[in-house]
């Protein structure tokens, strides 16, 4: 007998599926290459605005984007049937930071070099507004998809999110700032007394977090948590729940 998927998770999966289908349209707006290419030419385009918005929204909603909207996450979740193994060594999380700092530093260097001559071109390399608007661009599209699919298949659950996602650091820093200045935000809470120790929460976490330990320690905050709610919706005793404070 198949397990019934909680309604909230059906909605989340529907949103992720929609995001995945729209990726040929949105790819350049999330691209780490397009923003770099523009910065070298002294251009400010749509993608840095989106990265900034991710940082701002993370002040209140953490990495909600990763768990509910991100097309790269959707592609990786589609690979769970191939490799559903959790990431055991979380030291690999630092790899994305080692890539992110020089990437961001280079962008800021070229924008700073351009100074007052910076021009705003929101549709740089996306003149029609659609990222993949001719057959040749499908090569780039499939290479990007392959990058995340291979990470999920070879490394494990959402491997690309751990290793080389360039958007995650913006949201991680936004979340940390929000917590530091005590802004109200969406987060998980847990009641250890309600927990039976079944570890269903840990088994369902797409980011390979030891959620059961987090519950028992009353420490539900984790920079790799994407607030997908799978632990919430699969907890039989409702020991984990969303909260906004």
From TrEMBL:
GO terms for molecular function: 4 iron, 4 sulfur cluster binding; metal ion binding. Residues 186-214, 216-245 form the 4Fe-4S ferredoxin-type domain. Keywords: 4Fe-4S, Electron transport, Iron, Iron-sulfur, Membrane, Metal-binding, Transmembrane, Transmembrane helix, Transport. It comes from Leptolinea tardivitalis. The chain crosses the membrane at residues 12-30, 42-61, 94-112, 138-156. The keyword Transmembrane applies. GO terms for cellular component: plasma membrane. Pfam families: Fer4_10 (PF13237), Fer4_5 (PF12801). InterPro entries: 4Fe4S_Fe-S-bd, 4Fe4S_Fe_S_CS, Electron_Trans/Redox. This is 4Fe-4S ferredoxin-type domain-containing protein.
């Amino acid at each position: 007998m198949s397990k019934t998927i909680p309604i909230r998770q059906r909605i989340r999966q529907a949103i992720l599926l929609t995001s995945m289908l729209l990726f040929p349209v949105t790819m350049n707006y999330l691209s780490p290459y397009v923003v770099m290419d523009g910065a070298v030419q002294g251009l400010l385009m749509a993608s840095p605005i989106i990265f900034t918005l991710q940082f701002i929204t993370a002040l209140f909603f953490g990495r909600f984007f990763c768990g509910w909207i991100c097309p790269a996450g959707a592609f990786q979740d589609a690979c769970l049937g191939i490799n559903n193994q959790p990431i055991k060594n979380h030291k690999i999380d630092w790899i994305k930071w080692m890539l992110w700092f020089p990437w961001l530093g280079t962008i800021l260097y070229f924008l700073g070099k351009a100074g007052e001559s910076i021009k705003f071109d929101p549709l740089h390399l996306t003149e029609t507004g659609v990222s993949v608007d001719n057959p040749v661009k499908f090569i780039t599209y499939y290479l990007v998809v392959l990058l995340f699919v291979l990470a999920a298949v070879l490394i494990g659950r959402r491997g690309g999110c751990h290793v080389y996602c360039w958007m995650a650091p913006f949201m991680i820093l936004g979340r940390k700032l929000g917590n530091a200045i005590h802004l109200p935000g969406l987060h998980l809470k847990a009641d250890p007394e309600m927990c039976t120790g079944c570890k269903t929460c840990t088994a369902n976490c797409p980011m390979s977090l030891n959620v059961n330990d987090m519950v028992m320690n009353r420490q539900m905050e984790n920079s790799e948590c994407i607030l997908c709610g799978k632990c919430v919706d699969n907890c039989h005793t409702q020991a984990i729940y969303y909260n906004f404070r």
